[in-house]
Amino acid sequence: xxxxxxxxxxxxxxxxxxAEFGSRVQWLDAxxxxxxxxxxxxxxxxxxxxxxxxxxxxxxAERGVAVHEGALTWADRPTALRPPVDTPFVPGTTVExxxxxxxxxxxxxxxxxxxxxxxxDYGFPEAEYYxxxxxxxxxxxxxxxxxxxxxxxxxxSKDITAHVNFTGIAxxxxxxxxxxxxxTSQARFLFNCGLAxxxxxxxxxxRAMAQKLVTEHEMGELFKVLALGRGVTLDPLGFAAGDRMxxx
Length: 248
Known about the structure:
Number of helices: 7
Radius of gyration: 20 Å
């Protein structure tokens, strides 16, 4: 089992947690140049930088960060960038595009000679992601299990994330030669994989933790699982029922 993690602090915590497995676990600084493997990316794509686009009703602008009188503030500049849909956006709408996450998938495709990649993250297919009613985008901050939408406050003290446009990720993978093997909610994926049977002998604490993974108001519906593959004949169990590839 090889872990790609750039955080030294997280590596130390992982090494302590996985010490009993010895040399079966190793840490890498980057993806191998070539791999035949199963790749698991749990909340990887949402942590990659996004670009913000703002629609004023006339033209699109790229939204960035500027300093005004010693304080951080938003600033817009004209851009040729556009969202990947022709939706009639409401003036004042801000959306995200994901060139870096899509580039990461293309890089993975270049190196994955045979195998599959499973991405677990919160997000939507394109039609939901760029729905006209979603006027404020999805950019969020998280700290100590609290969420807010103020990334210019307490900079460096909280995580900044954005939901994933799974259609864009799937298309990036397909364009790079990967096959889309499945797409569904996290709850459906886990139940397809036998979570109910695994919980039969679980204690109350374990069952309570599992509920957070599968209930709709927690992580069960907002989180999705997307599988991409190359050179494999694979019908993943996690998508046996409730596959939503048609929504991408």
